[in-house]
Amino acid sequence: MRDSIIIVSKYDIWAESFRMWADKEMSLLSILTIAGVVVLLVFAVVLYEVRRSNKVRRELQDLAWKKFEYSAKRLKLNLGCMSILKAIAQDGDLQDPDSMLKSPHVFEIALEKYYQRKEIKTIPDEKLEEIRNLRKILGFLPLSKEIAYSSTRQFVSCEKCKVRIPEEGPETHKGMCDILRTEELNWSIARPDGPPVPLGTWISINFTRPGDAEYDFRAQVLRDSKGALELSHATELNRTQQRSFARADVSISVEIIQMNRDGVGDIFFGKIIDMSGGGFGMALPIKLIRGAELKLNFELPGHGRIDQLPVIVVRVAGAYNNDSSKTVHSVAINGDVPAIQEQIVHYVFEKQRQDSMLKNV
Question: What is the 3-state secondary structure (H, E, C) of 266-306?
Answer without folding.
Answer: CEEEEEEEEEECCEEEEEECCCCCCCCEEEEEEECCCCCEE
